[in-house]
Amino acid sequence: MEIKQEAVSRARKNEIDYTAVANSSEFKTLLQEKRKFIVPMSIFFFCFYIALPLMTSYSKVLNTPAIGAITWAWLFAIAQFIMTWALCIIYSRKAESFDKLSDKILQSLEKGRG
Predict the structure, then answer these.
(1) Dihedral pair phi/psi, residue 52, rounded to 5°
(2) Entry pTM
(3) Neighbours of 52 (CB within 10 A)
(4) For residue 67, what are the β-bridge partners?
(5) Rounded distance, CA 37 to CA 91, Å?
(6) What is the pLDDT of residue 12?
């Protein structure tokens, strides 16, 4: 019986108060930083992505030749692939700062337990 109580008390020591974490200023800073980055990037991605079908459907701007027989529509489509890769690279680099903020939160949790 004593072994079971000891295991329960160890488990309680390792419990995380998620409400306290969610209310902490560090966590709110992390969410704010992520939101400041992700929302504008998502809006940009959506607008850039939807522009090609809209412009080819409702205007003739992209149907004009850009380089020889290659039209602006083809260049815009290729640019969408490049934009997607670029956003992935930018996010990967920015995620490092998010990871640092997350590590600070974890460290403060460890200090609080220890």
Answers:
(1) -60, -55
(2) 0.71
(3) 15
(4) 70
(5) 9
(6) 56
